[in-house]
Every structure is written in C-alpha cells, then in structure tokens.
Amino acid sequence: MPSDHPPAPEESSAESLVAEHVLEFPGGYTRTTGPVIGRFLTELREGRIVGVRTAAGRVLVPPLEYDPETGDPVTGEYVQVGPAGTVRSWAWVGTPRKGHPLDRPFAWALIELDGAGTALVHAVDAGTVKAMRPGLRVRPRFRPEAERAGHITDIACFVPEVSTMAAPIRTEYRVRPGRSLARFLEGVRDGVFLGGRCAHCDKVYVPYRTTCPECGSTIGEEVELPDTGTVTTFAINNLPDPRAPQVPFVSAYVVLDGADVPMIVLLGDVPARDVRQGMRVRAVWVPPEERTLSMGNIRWFAPTGEPDVRL
Amino acid sequence: MREVAVVAFAQTRHTGYDEGLTEPELISPILQEVRRATGLTRFGFTCSGSCDYLAGAPFSFVSALDAVGAWPPISESHVEMDAAWALYEAWVRLQHGDVDSALVYGYGKSSQGDLREIMTLQLDPYYLAPLGLDQVSYAALQASALGAPESELTGIVRRSRADGRANPYALDLPDPADEPAGQEHAVHPLRPIDVAPPTDGAAAIVLAAGDLARDLAERPAWITGIAHRAEPHYLGVRDLARSPSAAGAARAAGVGKGPVDIAELHAQFSHEEVILRQALGLSSGTVVNPSGGPLAANPVMATGLIRVGEAARRVMDGTARRAVAHATSGPCLQQNLVTVLEA
Ligand SMILES: [Zn+2]
C-alpha cells in the first residue's frame, strides 16, 4: 500500500527537478462591491456596523443581497447593530499562519452582534484559549480612523463612497516537470532533442511525451531528432524578456526535421525584419561543459543559410 | 428516468507526496484501465472535475485532455469542482438519450501548494477571504459548533485509518494511539488526526445507459437516485452543526427508501462524518467508509468521485446490494451530492 513518504531521489537525476512557482495579482484584484456590500463597508469605514433587514424582518450581518431563507432581495432598510456581540461558537488558532489577521494565538468566532439575526465571522484576540467560551461578550476594535479603507479588516483610506476593494491573491507552489519533460530535458542536457512516436498515428511529437494528444494512446517509442528545422510562423516581441538576447526579439514555431509538430523557440543571429516563414534554422548550443537539465542549453535558433523551404 | 449505471471504476495508488507526475501522466493509466475494463475507446460524453488553483495555472485542466484522446473532436465538459459533480453532469447528459456512455474523471495534486490557503480562495472575496480564513480554521468552527465528544471522533479516525491500511489505494497511516504524543491542535478543537491527509491522486468512472450497461458489466451498479442541494455560502447564516442540504439531497435521492448496506461519505474532517450520518439518516446497520474514506486518502477533486466508485465497486462485486455515495463541495459541507446505487 502507498506510504505517505516519498522515496529519496538520486542526486542530480531529473527526478530531483523542482521549481518555485507563484500565482499572484500584484496589488490585489479589483472587485466592485455592489450597493449592499458597499454600504456595509462604507459604514465600517465610519466605525459603524450595519445589517440589512429581510422582508421577514431578520437582520443579516454582514448584509447579503438576497435572503438566504427565501432567495428574495433584501429590503433597503439598514440597521445599525452592536457594536458589542455574543460569541456563538469559536475555534482556537495556536499557531497563526501568514495570511491570518493576527500574528499571535487567537480565536476564529461566529459572533452574533446585538440586534443581528445572524453571526459574523471574525477573529477574537482573547490572549488565551481559556478566555474563550460560547456566550462570551465581545466588542470590535476598530483601526484608527485614518487607517480604515472600507475593508472587512478596516485598513486606511479617505471618504468617497466605497465602490472597489482589493482582494489579494498569492499562493506558492512547488512544481516538478513530470516524467516526459524530465526525459526531454535529459536529452537537452546531452545535446539532443528527444521526441516520441505514436505507433497508431505514425506521428512524431517533440518535446517528448508519453501520450498521443490525437488518439490518447501510450507512446512507447523514443526518437532522437536533429537540431535543424523550418520556421512555420513567428512573432516579433518588443517587450524585454530575461530569456531573450535583445529587444526586439523573435519567437518562432520551428518544426524540427522529422517531427510532426512545431516547438516554440527563440531566433537569434538574424535581424527581426529578415525572419520569414520557411526559413531553415539550427539550434545554437551552449558549450557542453555549461549544459544542465534546462532549455537554457539552447541559446536560440539561427539561420543555416540553406534555401527556404516551401510550406 | 433513463436507467444509468456505473460499469467501471479505477483509481490511482494515492500518495501523500508529489510523485513527480504531471496531471496527464497521473490520469493516463487509470483512463487506460477503464478503457480496458469496458472495451470502449470512445465515449458519447466525457466530463472531468479539477481545480486550476491546485496547480496555480489557468486552464490547467485543458492539458489533462492530452490523456483522453480528443481527436477527432469529442463531446467534452469540465467542472471546477470535485469530479462527483462531473459524474452528475454526465448522468444528466445520458438522460438526453442520444448517447449511451460517458467517461468521468477527476484528479488533484495537493502536494504542489498549501491546500489550507488554496481553499481560502473559494470563500467570498468581501467578508471571508480577506480575513485569511483557511480551510482547517473554518472546519474547526464547524467542529466547535457540533461539539462531538473527542472519543467519538478518535473512533472515526481509528476505523478510517485501519480500513485505509487494508485498502491498497489509500495511504498507510498509523492508529491514532501510535501518533507521537503531545501534538498541538491543528486549530482547536481539530487535532491533526481529525484532518484528511494531503494527497495526490486521480479516479475515473465509466457510466453506461440501459442495455449497453448490461453488456459491459456483469452486475452494473444502477444509479437509482441522485440529487444535489446547496446552502448559503456565508457561514454566519447557517447552523453549522447540521447539514440540511445533505438531508435534502438524501431525501430527493431516496436514501431512506430501503436499507443501506454501505455508505461512502466525503468527510474530510472526522466531525463531518457525525453530521453526515445524521443528515443522511443512516442506521447503525450501515457500514460507513469501508474504503477508509477521505481520512485515509484525500486526492481533492477526485475524493467525491472515489466515493461513488467505491460504493459502486461493492455493488458490482456483490458485497452490497444497496449503497450510498456522498460528495461535498464548498466550506463546511455547503454543497452536497447524494447518489444511491443498487444491484
Ligand atoms: Zn496517436
């Protein structure tokens, strides 16, 4: 049966390849609040907490646009509640995480504010878990007025009615290349391009892969391809990129000789205006002693000077 | 309703670490396995469930199609949810009557990121996500609202891990008594053992309608009821100690219309099993999570589909006559899908 521990990879093998990857909206994603949430956040910035009344008379805090019981739109009646309230249930965080609102142990709690018919989820800075109990009376601690921005965490800003807010997203990952790409990179380390031939479709795919994208069958046959090919299409890029030799640079689709699908590569040693479809190119490799398990082994592709191929 | 049955099920040998496989490499073997089991190479409909935030790459689910074989073009769909909902979509698609088979698969690699924080991204962006309310924290709020005795929860973990050790596809986790002493709570009242282990894995199911199902399987697991219900998203408007949506889905699926031999429940925290047993109205005669359940292997986005597969497997091999599978999505059992499978 599978264990929960990985086998130790051999050092310097492709099995040990891992890259850091970050997904982030720098500065936060801009979201409109709509009138109901916007009203709540606007009042919050003023240091007040309001709920909205449903047709049945229940006060929803924080306000929702629709009554969760009936699905009907809520009334336009906003009611100031609290600011004190009662803890209905709670959970204790002994070791806060970096995204948490407090950097010391605290409780998450469902808090029923005085006058509200629902509970608000927020953090309680109680000092110790022993202080927490259902029925505990709590009060909000607002940030200084100058720091409030109309955000559930009450960060600073000024007066116009709130219509937007920032929702930061940043999550970190550790990604590995997978066996197909790892195998391909082993080839690149050794100065060859590895492809895979689908026996069923009789097509050669490069980079190397283990399944055929056309028919889905397992690819068993590995083939070595030459480092020459033909440009099928290209783009001239005017924004700098750390991987590119200069600006403007040319990225192109190149079908390696013997392959059935193009690879995307950089072109170099040629002015951008001279690049054309059908141009014959060859990979420019870094010296063997500098090669690693990386596409960085190929500086770019450069024209061979052979006559163009008719596509 | 058109008769539809599960006729094949396959899952990976799930791991608690990154095996170094891409998603297509992970799912390709199990797709081959269900193709072999049914003899089908093309399906009337294909539907998958996964979550792009697990890999942190937009449209990462599209790359998984490499393992499916999408040429000539196939009829295909995807849900950004557990693949149990992909199965629901496939079941609805088969009700149209013009196709007779469907391939459903789901996969998830929790190992690449931090699942607790990734699951924060599913919360509403105004009131909950900005607080940094992580997955274990909101589950702990629900456990606190329920207030089940610790001994009952330990018993659920003990049984789940023992069943998981006997399941070749689940993780090999020790008895709670053999865990190192003095471990801190994950988030009180949840202990680390109450939380499903981060898991990489995948699963696939083939559905077939009517006579095709009878041709493909000796003993198809017929779907005699399937229903989905949801509750409000905001935690503060719900009674977290109960799951009225799971109860409503169970009623609509007809769980109570006969004895339930086994139930596979998508309980990623031990207390969720207590809430779900009550919501589904399961008696003490029902064996719960004989596979070990999510507490023994939780490849997110496949975990719910595996509940259907494990329940169906037991109907197909004759160890159960009537089985129930439950899948959940959203914070604190917000959405629930209940499937009844019969011989
Ligand atoms: Zn092929």
Automatic annotation (TrEMBL), chain B:
GO MF assignments: acyltransferase activity, transferring groups other than amino-acyl groups
Looking up InterPro entries in the UniProt record yields:
Thiolase-like
Organism superkingdom? Bacteria
* SUPFAM superfamilies for the chain: Thiolase-like
**What name does UniProt use for this protein?**
Lipid-transfer protein
Lineage, uppermost ranks: Bacteria, Bacillati, Actinomycetota, Actinomycetes, Streptosporangiales
